[in-house]
C-alpha cells in the first residue's frame, strides 16, 4: 500500500507538500516558460502536415514527458520511462496496460530502483531546484522509507503527466466537436487563457479522489459513518448545472471558467495547477500561429479506467 502526502492529514501533509511546492512557484514558472515554449515550438514544427498522425503519442505524451523529466532532472533520454510508470501506477488487469498485479508491482519497484539511484546522487550534492533534490534534502522527507518515497514519486509523476497530457488531447477533440468555438478561437487568440480553464473543466482528467470519513455525518440526506470510504466525483461537480450555467456545453469564453474542480480543493489542491495552465496556454498560442485547423479524422480511443479520463489515441490531420 503506497502512501503519499495527498493521502495524509496535517501536519505531515503540510510539511511534505511544502517541501516540493516551490517547484511551481511564480518565479520558477517565469523561468521555465521560455523552455516550455522552445520545446513546444520544436514539437509543433516537426509535425507532418496533410497526413494522419496520432496526436496523443506525438504531441500530448511528448510535451508532458519532457516537462516531467525537467521537473525531476531525470535523464532526458529515458524520459518515456516516466510515461510508462505513470500509466502502470493507475492501471489494473482490465486496463490493457498490465496483465497482473504482480507485473504492476514489479514495474513500480523498477521505478523505485531507478529513482533511488537518482536520490543517492542528489543527497550527496548541494540542494538544487528539482523534485528529487527537494525530497532528498527536505527535513520532512529525507528520512522517508522506500515505500513512502515511491508513493510520493507516483503522486508527482501521475499528477504531472495524466492531467496535462489528457487536457492537451481533450482540447483538440472539443474544438472539433464544437466548430463555432474553434472559430471563436481563430477570431480571437486572446481567448486562449480562458479556453485553457474551460478545457481542464470539461475534460476533468482525474475523475475522482477517495477520502475516509473521520466522524459520523449526514451529507445530502445520506448517513455517512466514521471510517466509510467516499469518492469525490470531480467530473460530476464540473458538470453540476446548479453551480455552472450550461455546464454540459464547451464554451471557450465562459465567465468564471477557472471555477472548476479539476485541480481539487482545499489543502490537497493540485500544487502544479499554474504550471499545467501555462503548458496548455503556450501550446495553444503556438498552435494558433501555425495551423488554421487540427482536424480529428477518426474516433478517439479512451483509456480503460474509471479514474483517469484520458485518451490512448487521437488521429488528426493538420491543415
Total helices: the number is 11
- The count of β-strands is 9
β-strand amount: 5-15%
Largest sheet: 3 strands, antiparallel
Which structural category fits the helices and strands? mainly alpha
Mean pLDDT: 94
| Spatial order of strands in the largest sheet | 1-9-6
**What's the alpha carbon Rg, rounded to whole Å?**
20 Å
| Residue runs with pLDDT of under 50 for 5 or more positions | none
Q: How far from one another are the termini?
A: 48 Å
Overall form: globular
* DSSP helix fraction: 40-55%
Helix/strand order? HHEHHHHHHHEEEEHHEEEE
Q: Can you walk through the features of this model?
A:
The protein is mainly α. It is built from 11 helices and 9 strands. The protein has helices spanning 12-20, 26-45, 55-72, 80-89, 101-123, 131-137, 146-177, 179-187, 192-203, 234-237, 273-288, and strands at 53-54, 208-212, 217-219, 222-224, 229-233, 294-296, 301-302, 311-313, 315-318. A 3-stranded antiparallel sheet has the order 1-9-6. A two-stranded antiparallel sheet has the order 2-5. It is globular, with a radius of gyration of 20 Å. The model has no long low-confidence stretch (mean pLDDT 94).
Summarize the structure.
By secondary structure, the protein is mainly alpha-helical. It contains 11 helices and 9 strands.
Sum up the structure in keywords.
single chain; 319 residues; mainly alpha; three-stranded antiparallel β-sheet; two-stranded antiparallel sheet; 11 helices; 50% helix; globular
Question: What is the secondary structure topology, with strand pairs?
Answer:
Blueprint: H1 12-20, H2 26-45, E1 53-54, H3 55-72, H4 80-89, H5 101-123, H6 131-137, H7 146-177, H8 179-187, H9 192-203, E2 208-212, E3 217-219, E4 222-224, E5 229-233, H10 234-237, H11 273-288, E6 294-296, E7 301-302, E8 311-313, E9 315-318
Antiparallel strand pairs: 1-9, 2-5, 3-4, 6-9, 7-8
Amino acid at each position: 500500500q503506497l502512501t503519499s502526502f495527498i493521502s495524509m492529514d496535517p501536519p505531515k501533509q503540510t510539511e511534505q507538500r511544502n517541501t516540493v511546492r516551490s517547484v511551481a512557484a511564480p518565479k520558477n514558472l517565469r523561468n521555465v516558460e521560455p523552455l516550455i515554449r522552445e520545446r513546444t515550438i520544436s514539437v509543433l514544427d516537426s509535425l507532418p502536415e496533410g497526413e494522419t498522425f496520432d496526436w496523443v503519442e506525438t504531441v500530448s505524451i511528448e510535451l508532458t514527458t519532457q516537462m516531467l523529466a525537467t521537473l525531476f532532472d531525470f535523464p532526458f533520454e529515458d524520459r518515456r520511462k516516466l510515461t510508462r510508470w505513470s500509466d502502470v501506477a493507475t492501471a489494473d488487469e482490465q486496463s490493457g496496460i498490465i496483465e497482473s498485479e504482480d507485473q504492476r508491482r514489479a514495474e513500480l519497484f523498477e521505478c523505485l530502483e531507478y529513482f533511488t539511484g537518482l536520490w543517492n546522487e542528489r543527497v550527496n550534492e548541494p540542494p538544487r531546484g528539482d523534485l528529487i533534490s527537494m525530497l532528498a534534502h527536505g527535513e520532512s522527507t529525507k528520512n522517508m522509507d522506500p515505500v513512502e518515497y515511491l508513493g510520493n514519486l507516483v503522486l508527482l509523476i501521475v499528477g504531472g503527466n495524466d492531467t496535462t497530457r489528457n487536457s492537451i488531447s481533450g482540447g483538440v477533440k472539443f474544438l472539433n466537436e464544437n466548430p463555432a468555438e474553434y472559430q471563436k478561437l481563430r477570431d480571437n487568440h486572446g481567448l486562449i487563457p480562458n479556453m485553457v480553464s474551460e478545457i481542464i473543466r470539461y475534460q476533468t482528467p482525474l475523475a475522482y479522489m477517495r477520502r475516509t470519513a473521520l466522524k459520523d455525518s449526514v451529507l445530502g440526506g445520506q448517513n455517512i459513518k466514521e471510517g466509510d470510504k467516499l469518492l469525490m466525483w470531480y467530473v460530476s461537480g464540473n458538470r453540476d448545472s446548479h453551480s455552472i450555467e450550461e455546464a454540459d456545453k464547451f464554451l471557450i469564453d465562459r465567465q468564471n471558467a477557472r471555477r472548476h474542480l479539476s485541480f481539487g480543493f482545499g489543502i490537497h489542491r493540485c500544487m502544479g495547477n499554474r504550471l499545467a495552465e501555462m503548458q496548455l496556454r503556450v501550446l495553444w498560442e503556438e498552435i494558433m500561429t501555425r495551423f488554421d485547423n487540427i482536424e480529428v479524422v477518426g474516433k478517439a480511443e479512451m483509456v480503460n479506467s474509471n479514474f483517469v479520463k484520458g485518451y490512448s489515441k487521437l488521429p488528426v490531420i493538420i491543415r
